[in-house]
Amino acid sequence: MSKPTIAIVGRPNVGKSTLFNRIVGGRMAIVEDKPGVTRDRLYGNGSWLTHDFHVIDTGGIEIGDEPLLEKMRAQAEIAVDEADVILFLVDGRTGLTDADETVADLLRKSKKPVVVAVNKLDNYQQRELMYEFYALGLGDPYAISCAHGQGIGDLLDAVVAQFSDNEPINEADDAIRFALIGRPNVGKSSLVNTILGKERVIVSDLAGTTRDAIDTPFSRDGQEYVIVDTAGIRRRGRVYEKTEKYSVLRAQRSIEESDVVLVLINGEEGIIEQDKKIAGYAHEAGRAIVLVVNKWDAVEKDDKTMEKFRRKIREQFQFIDYAPIVFLSALTGSRVDQVLPVIRQVAENHSLRVQTSLLNDCIMDTIAMTPPPSDKGKRLKIFYATQVAVRPPMFVLFVNDPELLHFSYVRHIENRLRETFGFIGTPIKIVSRKKN
Ligand code: GDP
Ligand code: GDP
């Protein structure tokens, strides 16, 4: 495991997702003035001072129609299982409630470090509302206002102080980290077993007992690999594990931790919305992607079935038209031997660096063959391009006026880069800068 994880726990409406967004920044989850709004983002990355960490908003994990206390219990359990430090958020204006005390009991028993934050103390006079929360028996509470951004710094100081000293454990740098994601029962655990072979299956006994045991390293044909979050794939028998939101959380977490993401689709049942959503997270996170159609053994087929399925995938997953598709059966082992070579190939493309001269030849050819359309009499000029990053490859185009670079032309350039340099399996990013 690389970075420590903070989980935010607390009753509905205390401000968990507001705090989550403050810490994670960037793309925001929806915050509305009513409880239970849908939110997509459960997992994100944050940093404070010299510390990088993951953050989980357990409030986004819907546990179904359970009574409030049961939901709170499940969310607290998730926090205990997943996090190194738990941030327990309460509402200073409402005051201490029974539900708060129930959660506090659970957290105290877990022996995980807990930091209590009392939210909605928007002004100085309200700060004294914090004192009643000493009764939780979880140490000094921190007065904060997520809405106004007050007290968050002191709170994060207290949280990162709880990280253990031996934070990051770096595996061999050239190991390819990959994750298997997909809805329950698609065959993730079976495919892990088939890839690893029988002797490795004992990992499951370790999995989930400590967070260090959740990744599985192995090597094949001289290449090191790490399967990310093997423990999450092999269930641990908790009630919440069957919920859809929990599987989204696991997927987001696995995606953050890996270079390559295998998106598993059930060949027997076809593509569902959830598959697209999960693939979307991987794409947005800039990971290399392989689409794996599993249970192909169970599909009744003729010589056109595969091609039809392939076309359907391309239609449904247009935003990842770069991802290779592998049809296989984790059960019979058919074509499973293709998986690691494909992973290796897309991982290479993901970290591919193109020589600047070759890159510029390609861009100039593109402009010569299809000049950028003019806009209100002004024409885009691209002076040169340079690659500024890998994983995924990112290119900067230096232009006369970035406003003139339209999405469709960026798309055109992307296609030409792909035709010229391959980039199979990896997203690529293209941005523009004004050159004076
Ligand atoms: P969650 O259900 O715990 O995730 O709570 P939300 O983050 O959705 O917040 C619930 C409501 O409390 C929203 O209307 C927020 O705008 C509001 N809220 C969050 N933080 C503060 C705060 O510091 N002060 C005040 N006054 N309102 C807040
Ligand atoms: P997970 O929830 O994604 O980890 O899925 P599992 O690996 O636990 O598999 C769920 C069920 O699908 C099990 O009953 C497996 O035996 C079955 N299964 C997995 N892979 C295949 C496959 O390739 N073909 C068939 N027919 N069944 C499979």
Automatic annotation (TrEMBL):
Keywords on record: GTP-binding, Hydrolase, Nucleotide-binding, Repeat, Ribosome biogenesis
Upper lineage: Bacteria, Bacillati, Bacillota, Bacilli, Bacillales
Domain of life: Bacteria
Organism for this UniProt entry: Sporolactobacillus mangiferae
Assembly behavior: Associates with the 50S ribosomal subunit.
Described purpose of this protein according to its UniProt entry: GTPase that plays an essential role in the late steps of ribosome biogenesis.
Name recorded for this polypeptide: GTPase Der
Binding of GTP 2, residues: 182-189, 229-233, 294-297
Domain EngA-type G intervals: 4-167, 176-351
Pfam family, one: KH_dom-like
